[in-house]
């Protein structure tokens, strides 16, 4: 009888007690829609949603709701991990491959458990949904080992530009955690080793040139250059692009102010 009483407080009719677990038609108290799960390469964020049902063994509605929220957070963590395992770091190497090393997996798990909660939805049956997100740069910092020496950036030229837009349309480029820009000989001219902080994303990915040029990331006056071919997941820049970079102060690259256009 006690169970029936507080289920009524939560908004579950007594006649539906036998169907609480199956019911999905409840009305949410908070109506903000769940964001799309997976990787947002433009914003540099991994997102997932977790759901939790009320604990019918709880002594009161408040405890049942807290139990649902804990369950939703655990489910969000599992879904983040599932989404992350297939994310490519470099060609032929995914996050799942890197996590085969116990130390790396432990650090990734720790980061995921500290996810940011972007929204919660409370339902009339006592259920809870939690939207979780983790930034990709933080994940990349533990997944991509540092190499030495770092990439040397020219900081002596004229300060003409506020960022870099790489036009890679038509090359079949796909987003990865640690892309590189190369010269014609295959030498890296930009990548994770050029960043002043490893918690900064290497690049954002866009599907339109105009969108990339207007991105806050690259500022008001970005340099737009053309990639001439794809080498694995790395982009080889045209000679003219390399010349422009060599003649300019490109300290903005150390801040990861790079947008790559794939379509």
TrEMBL record:
Domain of life: Bacteria
UniProt KW keywords: Signal
Presence of the UniProt keyword Signal in the record: yes
Signal peptide: 1-18
Protein name: Uncharacterized protein
């Amino acid at each position: 009888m006690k169970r029936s009483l507080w289920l009524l407080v939560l908004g579950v009719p007594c006649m539906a007690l036998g169907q609480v677990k199956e019911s999905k038609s409840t009305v949410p108290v908070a109506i903000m829609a769940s964001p799309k799960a997976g990787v947002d390469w433009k914003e540099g964020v991994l997102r997932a949603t977790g759901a939790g049902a009320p604990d019918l063994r709880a002594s009161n509605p408040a405890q049942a709701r807290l139990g649902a929220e804990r369950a939703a957070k655990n489910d969000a963590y599992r879904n983040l991990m599932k989404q992350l395992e297939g994310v490519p770091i470099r060609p032929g190497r995914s996050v799942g491959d890197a996590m085969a090393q116990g130390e790396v997996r432990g650090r990734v798990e720790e980061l995921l458990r500290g996810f940011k909660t972007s929204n919660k939805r409370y339902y009339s049956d006592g259920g809870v949904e939690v939207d979780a997100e983790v930034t990709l740069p933080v994940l990349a910092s533990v997944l991509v080992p540092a190499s030495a020496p770092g990439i040397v950036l020219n900081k002596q030229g004229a300060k003409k530009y506020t960022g870099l837009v790489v036009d890679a349309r038509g090359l079949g480029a796909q987003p990865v955690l640690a892309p590189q820009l190369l010269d014609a000989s295959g030498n890296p001219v930009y990548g994770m080793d050029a960043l002043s902080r490893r918690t900064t994303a290497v690049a954002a990915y866009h599907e339109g040139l105009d969108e990339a040029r207007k991105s806050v990331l690259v500022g008001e006056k970005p340099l737009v250059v053309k990639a001439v071919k794809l080498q694995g997941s790395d982009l080889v820049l045209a000679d003219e692009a390399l010349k422009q970079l060599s003649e300019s102060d490109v300290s903005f690259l150390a801040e990861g102010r790079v947008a790559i256009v794939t379509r």
